[in-house]
Design a protein that fits this description.
Elements (H helix, E strand, L loop, with lengths): L6 H14 L4 E6 L13 H4 L5 E7 L2 E4 L5 H6 L5 E5 L8 H10 L3 E7 L4 H9 L7 E4 L1 H4 L9 E4 L6 E3 L3 E2 L6 H19 L2 H15 L7 H12 L3 H11 L4 E7 L5
Helix pairs in contact: 8-10
Amino acid sequence: MRPNISEFSYGFALTSELVKAPGGVTAAPVFPSLIAEGQAGGGWDVRLDRPGVPLFLQFKLCDKMTRRTCKEVRHADFNVPCYRMHLRPSRTSSQHEMLLDLEASGQEVFYTAPMFHQPEELNAAFLDGAIRARSIWIKPSDIGPLPDDRDHHVSFELGSPWTLFSEPRQLETKRTFEDVATDLEERLRQRGEVDLSRMNLESLADTISEISEKSRDIGVRQLNMAREVARQAAPLQRIAYYASVFLESQLFIVQGRQQAA
């Protein structure tokens, strides 16, 4: 069964929960058009005065498999219902390769997808503050390089290991959002003072720009236009721009939750 929700609605619900849900850290989205570095009265120039770490999320949706004739049941002993998160095939897109490169540069990068597919399920999870908990969190490195240019997807059922298809290969890692939050808190403790420094952001902007050169989804003319648009932008703006346009990913800044005065 194809998902009956949109990536936009899922991404909006997850983003809202990451910003507002209680916990040790908060993750605020960075949109290229909303950055106000140096602007009086607030904006990301103010937020950069606090320790923080970048987080890149690629929102996905899942198909729900309900028939025992599906390959998950026939070839990997899955039960139904189970879910499929499709990856962009390398014959048409370099997205997975670029996300792998971004993670390999030392960044926090995840595919995230809901363990549901209907609007009423999305609404119920949102009202319960359970979008994060009812999502899977997969690093590109959990999957590794795609073995060929065929279609591939990650399949999962509640409480069972993730498996990469087309040829079934069980993935070694299985994490919850609590695992993600714990790792982000540790990274914030270790590197939060330096990750958002001007020097580090300039370096990351250069890195993600170089990674974006691998894109096969955007032509040379558009790539040159993107360079021109980003040329005069502040580093955080360039990072958000390249992440959005080339990797189709959302940049967040993870910071410790401020205590009330």
